[in-house]
Amino acid sequence: MENFEYCTPTRVLFGKGQVEELPARLAAYGKKVLLTYGGGSIRKIGLYDKVKKLLDGFEIYELSGIEPNPKLQSVEEGAKMCKEKGVEVVLAVGGGSVLDCSKAICAAACYDGQAWDLITGKVPTKKALPLVTVLTLSATGSEYDWGAVISKPDTNDKVGYLDGHLFPALSILDPEYTYTVSARQTAAGAADIMNHVIEQYFTAPNNYLADKICESLLKTVIRYAPKAIGDPNDYEARAQLMWASSLGCNGIAGLGNRYSGWPCHAIEHALSGYYDITHGVGLAIVTPRWMRHILSEKTLERFVNYAQNVWGIEVNGKDGFAVANEAIEKTYAYFVSLGLPMTLKEVGIGSERLGEMAHHIAVNEGLENAWSPLTEKDILQILQECL
Amino acid sequence: MENFEYCTPTRVLFGKGQVEELPARLAAYGKKVLLTYGGGSIRKIGLYDKVKKLLDGFEIYELSGIEPNPKLQSVEEGAKMCKEKGVEVVLAVGGGSVLDCSKAICAAACYDGQAWDLITGKVPTKKALPLVTVLTLSATGSEYDWGAVISKPDTNDKVGYLDGHLFPALSILDPEYTYTVSARQTAAGAADIMNHVIEQYFTAPNNYLADKICESLLKTVIRYAPKAIGDPNDYEARAQLMWASSLGCNGIAGLGNRYSGWPCHAIEHALSGYYDITHGVGLAIVTPRWMRHILSEKTLERFVNYAQNVWGIEVNGKDGFAVANEAIEKTYAYFVSLGLPMTLKEVGIGSERLGEMAHHIAVNEGLENAWSPLTEKDILQILQECL
């Protein structure tokens, strides 16, 4: 095991009806609230009205319309509102994009300069407003981690902003709020969770307990995503996906493993930075191609482990590469079975800008230091395989 | 999945040499420190001198001689020192007993009445001094949880004190400090960790992800305890046991499962409350007898799951009870293989007070509401099986 430092101070309230706790819990942080949300799905499921009713007596300001792959502009707008109105706590109701944007708002509200300087780490984050979240999509794990991914469309940048001040103070996780998530978004969320775990699992040095926890999360998603898609109101399936999403991205699964470089995320961030596609879909497309590309004598052991313990592939007496390729094919076939588009063409991306993206990734993402290092040429080949 | 609330705010510094961080981290809480430790093993391994040297410039008071199954008297003594000296932070260096005692000291130092009233929950805990720990034994998980078990010898009480104020602020976990732990104590620690997980696993309703995480922890301990006993300086083995101990008892393994009643702990607390035996040894003795006693049509599914996923027992085409009994025998044989005494006689306990203990447990532990309910008669039978 490698050395590590770990702390996830977020409090979780998980399960049916936990939103009823909101008034009492929120009041601990203040009465002046910025309520943030997305395109209106929380209105459709009645959650907007529910929250507004519960928070009768609070002074509520609203920032709505936060988009998928949230943009710097929304962060700046939210931070400005917080400063002008003296907001004491931000309440984010939505999926990972709303939560990520709100995390950056919490930090930018306590800083007098440019929000982008905080997001890019040019200046250190010293303070942030407390954030309370009500989650409506199982995918990014933002509800239980210290990260926010923010896009800056004019430069095609999509930056991962990591800071200890960004942990939500409280996250309310009621799986019922994901009943109306579409099959496509449920599948994309499942691919997102799985890839978070894969990024922690495919590395060296690794360790046994981390392996087992990563495999636990992968098997849980593999088992329950089809159930949630088949019966959107299957509480147990929605609950398993939701808690797997929370444990998938806050680091606890891979503690003691070396940082892998998160190569699929590095590549996907260019795809959704340039083309604004759904992050989980991009990850589903990239992951099996990345796996095929890096499979080698050096990486073989990880793939055999993955084949045996995640997919239940019999390995005894078989050629390691055959086993590894079978596991990669199973990964691909699983994403297909969830109904995910598995080529860039299907999501409207052609070959025109692959070279530009490969260059952008090679320059910005440090993948030459990844567990299985990638040059610009490697990255371009992986992107071409995704077409 | 059942609803749950969860938060573990403790910061963990894990790995070789992390104690070097102590001065900088401790200073955040203050300069007046109560250093607590046990019988002197930290002197033998040089940790006492190391800590004293690192904390040059701090104002250090010492409470040494904290005993296994820590007693109320030590809590009172430590709390008195904190009050008299104006201690700002407690630094506990040792195993679970030192940590548990120190947690209670932190709370009692902020309360003007009787410490026992806090410990028994007669009065609510409203405040506690910050606690920093340096762990030297992988067993109880106290370094990463909110519990402290305190004994009151004059009444044979051994009480579990659970409160959110008891989480350590920071725990430094360097597996090297467990190199000198004896084979017997290593084995007892392994049994302790395993039983913490078993108490979360054998219940209903349970859930898939919790099952997988519990199985991960059990398999990790089963794999690495013999390695640590065989080669006390095996860093990886010591590290796996240490992190498994931390994840084993703070609740994260069984989230969404119903509380089982922790029956083996309830029974063992009487054994070590009456006879001051090593907690992990008591658990190793009780666990397989409790398993045999509660095995029934109603509980069978859990045992088959345990057999298949923890011990790798082939279940297809076999009688469920045969599979379950094989798993129980494997559990027993595993503890034997670690060199643990597996009868009460071997630890100096005869039949004289079994009835008295069974009554004490039945009256105080609420096991009539356990997952598999136990009457006083059941408890007595289990104790008799342990002879």
Automatic annotation (TrEMBL), chains A, B:
**Alcohol dehydrogenase iron-type/glycerol dehydrogenase GldA domain mapped to chain residues:** 9-175
Keyword DNA-binding carried by entry = no
UniProt keyword annotations, A-Z:
Oxidoreductase
- Gene3D superfamilies the record matches: 3.40.50.1970, Dehydroquinate synthase-like - alpha domain
Domain Fe-containing alcohol dehydrogenase-like C-terminal, which positions?
Answer: 186-385
Q: Which Pfam family, any one of them, does this sequence belong to?
A: Fe-ADH
Question: Which GO molecular function terms does the record list?
Answer: alcohol dehydrogenase (NADP+) activity; butanol dehydrogenase (NAD+) activity; metal ion binding; methylglyoxal reductase (NADPH) (acetol producing) activity
Q: Give the protein name, as stated in the record.
A: Iron-containing alcohol dehydrogenase
Per the UniProt record, the source organism is Candidatus Borkfalkia ceftriaxoniphila
